[in-house]
Amino acid sequence: NMTDTTFLPPLIAAIQAEILNNEEEISALDRAIGDGDHVTNLIRGLEALSKLNDELVQLDWSAAFMKIGMTLMSTMGGASGSLLGSMFVSMGKEAKEQDIDLAGITAIYAAGVESIKARGKADIGEKTMLDTLIPVMQSLQSDAEQNSDKATVLANIKAAATQGMQSTKDMLATKGRASFLGERARGHIDAGARTSQLILCVIADQLSE
Ligand code: ADP
Ligand code: MG
Ligand code: MG
Q1: What is the pLDDT of residues 122-161, one digit of tens each?
Q2: Which residue's CA is the closest to the ligand 1 atom numbered 12?
Q3: C-beta separation of 161 from 201 below 8 A
Q4: Which residue of 49, 86, 88, 185 shows the fewest CB atoms closer than 10 Å?
Q5: Neighbours of 188 (CB within 10 A)
């Protein structure tokens, strides 16, 4: 139902724990082909979200997503902060129009991904977080069409996120800081693709419980 956001605080805590568990690895990814700060930016954003907990549970999905988006925009910093911030603001707007069923969640998520594509002027294949986010959108869209059961939807989210993240390894970057490196960016997984994959897998695991 549209008003129940009590799942958000434990979900944010689980995401925080997963990012902290992988802090060293993520830091090394952004050091290799970026400026090294991606994990710090994300941890700062998640800390700000965890302080919203009491407030978030008072809000419906739409208002909670908007609040999350504005908070990420104002606290996180980096390219990823403004992109993820705009993703959640757009999901908040779309959530006003949708039921919270598989089709509705798919439409909400797709609106978020479209806003990152528009804001970052990027698409799949450019070695960014979109290489994780877009395959998950496609997997949701196909599962929504086929009316797949919950276990299938969640397993497909994890598989699409993981394949998408891994696909960035051999790509050349055409957007973001890694694009300055040309061929030297090849052989490294994109940091934003990795954190997006970790987050989506935590969400899938939490929802399966
Ligand atoms: P910054 O690059 O400003 O230091 P971060 O390190 O926090 O910001 O985030 C870098 C991540 O942002 C990259 O790994 C990539 O996934 C993502 N990113 C950068 N530019 C774009 C873009 N134009 N579109 C989509 N994602 C992008
Ligand atoms: Mg960086
Ligand atoms: Mg930076």
Answers
A1: 999 999 999 999 999 999 999 999 999 999 999 999 999 9
A2: 80
A3: yes
A4: 86
A5: 22
Give the rounded distance of the alpha carbon of 23 from its chain centre. 16
**Which domain does 70 fall in, by range?**
8-207
70 is a domain residue: yes
Task: Report yes or no on 3 lying in a domain.
Answer: no
**Domain holding 86: CATH number?**
1.25.40.340
Q: How far is the CA of 99 from the centre of ligand 2 (A)?
A: 36
ipTM > 0.95 (yes/no): yes
Residue 1 lies in a domain: no
> What is the model's pTM?
0.98
Report the distance separating Cα 29 and Cα 48, nearest Å: 23
Q: Evaluate whether residue 2 is within a structural domain.
A: no
Task: Tell me how far the alpha carbon of residue 94 lies from the centroid of ligand 1, in angstroms.
Answer: 24
| Ligand 1 atom closest to Cα of residue 77 | 7
